[in-house]
Amino acid sequence: MRNLKMVILIEALIIFNPCYSQDSHQKRQEVIMDFLNYIKEPSWKFDTLVKKYLLFRKDESPKFSKNDRKMIISFAVAYLSTEVQNTKFKELIIKPYLETDSSMQKMFIRRETKEAAYIVYNKDKSFLRYFLMDKDKIVSFVTLKQGRAFVLLN
């Protein structure tokens, strides 16, 4: 009886683990798409970004003050907003970093980070951006086309 319970438990883990992972990826992709949709209008608000999309520590950081981090992130979002406005939004594709073509996997990041990273691109790859997620919040994103590393401000 004990062996039967163990077999059932193992089978349940095998069956439900991919579903959880898929749901997690789908949720993260939705957060990224909602974030991009929100910032494509120039009237976005920093407080709304933090509440809904970005992981932003409100306490002081040893590297940057809260105000410095807010300013840097605001500039990066403004830059990304302009780029999103200039691309065909409906053509954007969001995929987990490890599921994309190897030619797009150019970030200098550890394996664990790759598992939390996503790439947003369009068909001709004229828009290609990297996002780092923690659960359902954006931790960092790269605004440069040839960016090679995430800047973590928290």
Give a verbal description of the structure.
The chain is an alpha+beta fold and 154 residues long. The chain has one domain. Helices cover 45% and strands 14% of the residues. The chain has a 4-stranded antiparallel sheet with strand order 1-2-3-4.
Name the beta content range.
5-15%
**pLDDT under 50 segments (min length 5)?**
3-20
Strand order of the largest sheet: 1-2-3-4
Radius of gyration based on Cα positions: 18 Å
Oligomerization status of the protein chains: single chain
Report how far the terminal alpha carbons are from each other: 50 Å
Count of strand segments: 4
Number of helices: 4
Percent range of helical residues: 40-55%
* Structural class by sheet pairing and helices: alpha+beta
- What coarse outline follows from CA principal-axis ratios? globular
Order of helices and strands: HHHEHEEE
Quickly describe the structure:
The protein has 4 helices and 4 strands, in the order αααβαβββ. It is of the alpha+beta class and 154 residues long.
Give the key terms:
154 residues, 4 strands, alpha+beta, 4-stranded antiparallel sheet, 45% helix, single chain
Layout of secondary structure:
Layout: H1 2-39, H2 46-52, H3 66-85, E1 93-96, H4 111-115, E2 117-121, E3 128-134, E4 137-142
Antiparallel strand pairs: 1-2, 2-3, 3-4
